[in-house]
């Protein structure tokens, strides 16, 4: 049988053989990528995060994705340094984590990332002195209250976006890294966004998307910079997650709850430098990559103009 196929092939013209080989290689490549996708999403075990160190530091842990990360990391047996702006909310979150996972040690640090950042970062440094912080989740982030053109973005919003998303992420990382370098181990997770990486543009959210593009490139450079020091840097790229920032209350197949996202997210820590941990998001990413960019640009612009219109309407009702 094999001889027969070989004879048949030998009698074919060279161009057809090249064509068939290319087709075979493409099918092989596609099949391997599907197998890899199944493995990393459903079969690959998560790393033992306690091997990085016994403490995790999370920014923005009082709501949304950050809060879910705090609960999940406590569930995995890590002690927590929670960095948030609201002392009452920090106290509430720590108490509910302690009531669920009694043995978790928790230290709260009050930092308003849009306020005096240097002062806040020096307080973080003081608190983590002597703690083996092995996991850092740079989650804190702000977006627009609703979509708007760049000339409609006021100075305060512009400054908050850059201070919280860019400066905050950079300075907290700088504060935590020396300990990790000394211990030769650590995992840093920076929360990026599909707005900068999955879709070609995010019109009417330009500054937000651009800050997340910074987070993406910052993460990739650090991944290479610190790989040999035993530190795994990763940019996680969520698409929509049901939080107050996304103005989505209920989860669905393509929009996970914060808990659903954080459970998936923990399993990816320490692996690829860039990932989208919630598997239905990776289907949307594949779809976006297969469409012409102009089609996505046009759809996104229409979608964001709709958000702007509804936001303006709400604002004008509030004023009445
Ligand atoms: N939700 C999504 O669909 C989505 C998609 C892609 C990426 N992301 C990214 O995921 C991360 C978390 O977003 P989220 O949806 O969970 O947001 P969220 O529900 O609005 O929670 C944001 C967290 O950050 C804190 N925070 C905001 N401004 C702060 C400041 N100036 N100083 C200190 N803390 C501050 C909030 O504190 P308070 O509790 O005091 O408000 C809260 O704990 C962000 O980086 C976001 O860009 C989200």
Tag the structure with descriptive keywords.
single chain; 320 residues; alpha/beta; Rossmann fold; seven-stranded parallel sheet; 7 strands; 57% helix; 11% strand; binds NADP nicotinamide-adenine-dinucleotide phosphate
Task: Tell me briefly what this model is.
57% of the residues lie in helices and 11% in strands. With 320 residues, the chain is α/β, with parallel strands linked by helices. It has a single domain (49-310), classed as Rossmann fold.
Protein architecture, described:
There is one protein chain. The mean pLDDT is 96. A 7-stranded parallel sheet has the order 3-2-1-4-5-6-7, sandwiched between helices. It is globular, with a radius of gyration of 23 Å. Helices cover 57% and strands 11% of the residues. The chain is α/β, with parallel strands linked by helices and 320 residues long. The longest helix is centred in the first third of the chain and has 30 residues, at 14-43. The protein has one domain (49-310): Rossmann fold. The structure holds NADP nicotinamide-adenine-dinucleotide phosphate (NAP). NADP nicotinamide-adenine-dinucleotide phosphate is lined by residues 60-66, 84-86, 89, 112-114, 139-143, 164, 191, 193, 238, 240-241, 243-246.
């Amino acid at each position: 049988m094999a001889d027969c196929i070989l004879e048949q092939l030998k009698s074919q013209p060279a161009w057809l053989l090249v064509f068939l080989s290319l087709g075979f290689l493409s099918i092989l490549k596609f099949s391997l990528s599907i197998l890899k996708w199944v493995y990393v999403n459903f079969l690959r075990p998560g790393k033992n995060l306690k091997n990085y160190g016994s403490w995790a530091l999370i920014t923005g842990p009082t709501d949304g994705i950050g809060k879910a990360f705090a609960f999940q990391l406590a569930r995995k047996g890590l002690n927590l340094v929670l960095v948030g702006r609201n002392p009452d909310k920090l106290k509430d979150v720590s108490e509910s984590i302690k009531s669920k996972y009694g043995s978790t040690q928790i230290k709260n640090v009050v930092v308003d990332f849009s306020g005096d950042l240097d002062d806040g970062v020096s307080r973080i440094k003081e608190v983590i002195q002597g703690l083996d912080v092995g996991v850092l989740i740079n989650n804190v982030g702000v977006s627009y209250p609703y979509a708007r053109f760049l000339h409609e973005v006021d100075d305060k919003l512009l400054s908050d976006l850059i201070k919280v998303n860019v400066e905050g992420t950079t300075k907290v990382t700088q504060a935590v890294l020396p300990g990790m370098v000394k211990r030769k181990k650590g995992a840093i997770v920076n929360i990026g966004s599909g707005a900068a990486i999955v879709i070609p543009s995010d019109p009417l959210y330009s500054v937000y998307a651009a800050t997340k593009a910074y987070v993406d490139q910052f993460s990739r450079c650090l991944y290479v910079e610190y790989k040999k020091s035993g530190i795994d840097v990763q940019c996680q790229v969520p698409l929509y997650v049901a939080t107050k920032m996304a103005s989505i209350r209920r989860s669905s197949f393509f929009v996970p709850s914060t808990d659903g996202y954080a459970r998936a997210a923990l399993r990816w820590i320490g692996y690829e430098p860039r990932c989208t941990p919630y598997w239905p998001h990776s289907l949307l990413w594949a779809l976006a990559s297969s469409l012409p960019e102009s089609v996505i640009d046009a759809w996104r612009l229409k979608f964001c103009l709709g958000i702007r219109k509804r936001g303006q309407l709400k604002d004008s009702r509030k004023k009445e």
